[in-house]
Each structure stands twice: as C-alpha cells, then as structure tokens.
C-alpha cells in the first residue's frame, strides 16, 4: 500500500508536532518552511530558557486560554503537561518546574531539544524542505511552493492533505509574517484580524522621562487593570511600557483601548508594603530633604519609579496621600505596540471555520494548527503548549480524514 502523502507548511513547533504524528502513523511527510532553517521562533523562545508548558493543574492550564478554552480543550486533554515532559525526556532533554510552576528543559535552551527533534523526524523519513515558501494555489487549485534561494519556477505539491502551521503575525523576521491571511480569505475562510498579544502599549511620556529612562526596568511592581492584579516587572521604552506584568493583562487592555481609545493602568511601585507602612516611612524622613531623596532613602524607589510617579502630575505632600499614589500610580496606555514586536498574536482562523479535526470547512483536505488559529494565552508556557497540542490534533484530524476516505490526491477547484 502506498503511504499517504501529507505536506506540512511551517517548520515551527505546531508544524513539526504535526509532522511527527503523521510520520509515526506511516505517512510520507514533507515539511516546507520559507526560512533557511527550522524552528527559528522556537529557538528565540529558548533565549529565555524555553518555557514550554506549566505544571499547574490541567483545569487551571486550560482556563488560561480564555474564550478559546472550550474548543481547544480536546487538543489540550490529549497532550497534557506531563505528556510534553515525557516527550522531552524521550528526546534526551529532561525538564524541571521552577518555583512559579513554569516548566523548562534542564539545559535552559531550545537548541538541544530542536536538534534531537529534527533528527527524530529525519529518522522517520520526513523530508525537511527549508527555503521553500508556500505561495497558495495555482489556477487548477493545486497548492504551490517555490524555492526562496533561487526563486525558481513554482512547483505543485503532490499530497493527499495539507497542514498549514504558518504562525501568526509576531516576529515576522523569524518567519511568521501573516501573509497567509489573504490567501485563505480569498478561498472563503473566516479569519479574524491578527492583533498583537503579550505586547507593550504606547504611553505619551514627557520627552525628559523618555530620554532619561527608556530601557529602565521597574521592579518589583504590581499592576492592576479591570479588577486583575499581576505582580512582575515592567520595562520603560521610548514610546511606552512593556514587560511580563503588562503582558498578562494585554488582552483586556487591548480590548478596552479598542473600545475607548485608552486605558488607565494602576502601578503599585512597592507591592510588598501597605499604605500605612509607606506613609510611616515617609513621615519619618527629614522635611528639608528633596522629595526624590526621601523616596529613594525611605522607600528605596528607583530613579525610574520616581520619574514614573512624577509623570502623573504634581505629587501630594501629605505622607498618606503620597503613599496611596505610590500604591496606585496611574499610567494612561494608548495603542498596543506593533504586532512585529509582540511575543505572540491574537486573531486568526475562526474556530467555526474548522471541523473538530482542525480541517477547514471551506477547503477539504486543508488543516490548520498553532498560532494561525484564533486563540491567545499569556506567557508561562501556554503558547508553546497549545502550538504543540494543536499541531498533534491537526495531524490526528488528517489521519481520521484519510481513514474516512479523504481525497486520493489533494487538489482544490479554483
């Protein structure tokens, strides 16, 4: 029996996960990626240690996906955190859970895991075609690729099924350009606009603050928006704020900005102290000292934190009122930072456009996975976890479709 041919477009974690499942099931798999090498964004994530999943309860993990949790649940149920850790161990990369519950490889980088993964795929007979860009479909409705090194003539894809795992719109220099959106929309696929997620936001800083403190960290802080409070770090940029504490709130902030034009973030610059303790320390300082010195000596506020306080206008002299301001320093946020600077993206192929097996209803034989789908999640291992899980789920969707008598040869009528 001739092995079913499946082409996977996209050499990131979702695409490679799909390729692994398909190859293990006996399919002849070709993975195409426009970049010169595979897993470039995966390697970028490795610079932070490669937080690949989270060790919290499975129910809590699923809740991190917000409105998308219900339809992602079958994929997440089939590929849990413990499954990912066992899979890593099978590739020779042990893992550990940090104090926050985030799971990392012991090596604290992505390259050893990626090398072992690609070697496994090659051993399974997967054809890894780098420098190969998917162009869409030709006039006969067949998918087409082109070599990006020599820009040679387009080549038809000969396959029974096509898995698209092209990423969202963040980090375009690593391959996720979002160029697929118009191609799918032209074929009648419902695609929500791509938007930045886990991103910073613009702030109308004074020129003095921007020039002096761009690049300065604010830590430890706690930020509050819409009833949610998150502890972590912020970073001042020339045009705004970014950092993990803000990323955790970015979906809610983005929605508010879209509806109202701006959003006010409250920053607690001394989260480990209450108002009473802050006020007491301020009251004990010598009045003849400058306010900056009093804030620095009594509260150990950094110059950037003091500058942020002053950005909000004239500061109260009363110790209790000043302490209250320190615990809730308002920062008016404007538009999200550009999607190219975001860690991930929201938007993408609507779940209603897919079957439960991740096949596009408008394009039988075409499956989608990873950040191409319309979901978002905070940092903490949830992004990579869902990419791996949906890649595998799409592959199982392909296998089910082929088993049920899917097309002998993948082709679409224009």
Automatic annotation (TrEMBL):
UniProt name for this protein: TIGR03862 family flavoprotein
Record-annotated RsdA/BaiN/AoA(So)-like Rossmann fold-like domain positions: 5-396
Domain RsdA/BaiN/AoA(So)-like insert: 195-342
InterPro entries, per database record: BaiN-like, BaiN-like_dom_sf, FAD/NAD-bd_sf, Flavoprotein_PP4765, RsdA/BaiN/AoA(So)-like_dom, RsdA/BaiN/AoA(So)_Rossmann
Cofactor field: FAD
Keyword Flavoprotein recorded: yes
Swiss-Prot/TrEMBL keywords: FAD, Flavoprotein
UniProt KW Flavoprotein keyword: yes
